[in-house]
UniProtKB/TrEMBL annotation, chains A, B:
Origin: domain of life: Bacteria
CDD domains: WHTH_GntR
A GO molecular-function annotation: DNA binding
Keywords, in A-Z order: DNA-binding, Transcription, Transcription regulation
HTH gntR-type domain ranges (all copies): 13-80
Stored InterPro entries: GntR_C, TF_FadR/GntR_C, Tscrpt_reg_HTH_GntR, WH-like_DNA-bd_sf, WH_DNA-bd_sf
PROSITE patterns: HTH_GNTR
Source organism phylogeny: Bacteria, Pseudomonadati, Pseudomonadota, Alphaproteobacteria, Hyphomicrobiales
Keyword DNA-binding: yes
Transmembrane segments: none
Annotated protein name in UniProt: GntR family transcriptional regulator
Length: 250, 250
DNA sequence: TGCGCCTCAATTGCATGCAGTTTGAGGGCC
DNA sequence: GGCCCTCAAACTGCATGCAATTGAGGCGCA
């Protein structure tokens, strides 16, 4: 009967989940820009785990669409096309309308307080880095989703919100999120009031305006240049031709 | 300049994907019922790969919600609660309304033919096993999603459709999918006609009726007995008390 | 007979090792 | 000077091995 000095329930470890969370956060804060390389070794070394674990984590993130995995190639942070970004926002709108529909008039006092606290934090971070603002704004939506107590809805909203975050860093140049905060407050108010239709419409226009502010030009306005421009021309997505290489006759 | 005898594009291998697809199919055809154990060794042996690969595949399926992974325990086919099933259908309704909204009036002749062919196959399978009927019905919806050319939408619709499939095997007893086939035909007709509002409403009522036919009773009507019944009483989802074990005073 | 403890086979968590593929940098050739 | 070829380093794909945890059967005790 060893004294068992509280070493039993210690760490559930879950190293994979740890790495996933870290990478997710790094990605949405743009510490890792789209296209950034993610070699298994480096990740493993950085997090003090073996390649096996890093690899597994990359697999999970790829399933979420945050990472692109090509066989025998280094994993990279996903670079969604403009169309994919638009699609993600469309899906997000529907999912989040569902969230607020379920939540309207059903929030507890504690939940309302939590939401207000969060928006206050958004307010305070307004002068900080854009990255933090974006993260907080995203987390507001995830916080809402969490309150539905529907694990599935939480997962989908989180995933698609992260993806949208990713596209923001790709396609929106200056990022103006100030007004978004007021829209968050309006959503909370409508939720408390219990006006289902109103809050659904608010959420719709909120996300729609974020999307349209961000996804302005279908034409890539400058970033990543050649790669992006050539992407649509690579038929099967397989191997874009190098730079000055001309495809010559067989 | 080797002749390169077409050995280059041969097998991309992708053993993980292979196993995932196989398991997914086995699950939705109810060859693997909810709660079925999925030991890594056995899977690896069965598919001729190492545990590493089997493990990775299980991780992917867990991310999709088809498999439950508990630390240090054997993976099992997911057993969604009744509430989760209901949530999945709610999400599915919104996603598939989006699908048909995007598709209304935009189908090519080839696509229409493909859809009709599929429904014909559903018709022919009507006398076969329920499992095949369910699979075909699900694949109809995934086929629709595919036609949106939105990879994200395809992924979410597929996932949530598989999850719903899973719940059908749990909560619906006899399964009556005959009328569903006619509803599929009606949806195709409305899509061709291009009536957005009509087709969205059709899809809504179609899925709603499938859900309500399947998810009849919030009370577990019989299956899996004690485990299911006790589940809601396990506060943190952690470790349901054994059978005749009484929690005694400290 | 029944209840609890103990032990051990089964199984997972994770790291490491080896083989095959890709990358990109240098050198030779035009 | 530019192109191509070659080769080695870097990296991924996968299997295997070892330690830790689980849970199930067996043994002892009441």
């Amino acid at each position: 009967m060893a004294p068992r000095p509280a070493s039993k329930p210690a760490e559930p470890s879950d190293k994979v989940g740890l790495i996933c969370r870290a990478l997710r956060r790094a990605i949405i804060e743009q510490a890792l820009a789209p296209g950034a390389k993610l070699p298994e070794d480096s990740l493993g070394e950085r997090f003090g785990v073996s390649r096996t674990i890093a690899r597994h984590a990359l697999g999970q993130l790829a399933a979420e669409g945050l990472v692109e995995l090509r066989r025998n190639r280094i994993a990279v942070v996903a670079t969604p096309s403009w169309q994919e970004a638009r699609d993600a926002f469309d899906i997000r709108i529907e999912l989040e309308r569902l969230v607020v529909r379920q939540l309207a008039g059903k929030l507890t006092k504690a939940q309302i307080a939590e939401l207000n606290t969060h928006v206050d934090a958004e307010d305070r971070a307004r002068d900080g880095s854009d990255a933090v603002s974006i993260r907080l704004a995203t987390e507001f939506h995830i916080l809402l989703a969490n309150m539905t107590n529907s694990p599935i809805l939480v997962r989908y909203v989180s995933e698609v919100a992260y993806r949208c975050c990713l596209t923001l860093s790709l396609y929106s140049r200056p990022h103006s999120s100030e007004c978004a905060i007021n829209e968050h407050r309006a959503i909370i108010a409508a939720l408390v009031k219990g006006d289902e239709a109103k809050v659904m419409s608010l959420m719709h226009s909120h996300l729609d305006s974020v999307a349209s502010r961000a996804l302005v030009a279908p034409a890539p306005q400058r970033g990543r240049d050649l790669l992006d421009i050539l992407a649509p021309y690579a038929e099967e997505g397989e191997r874009v031709v190098k730079l000055p290489k001309v495809v010559r006759a067989r």
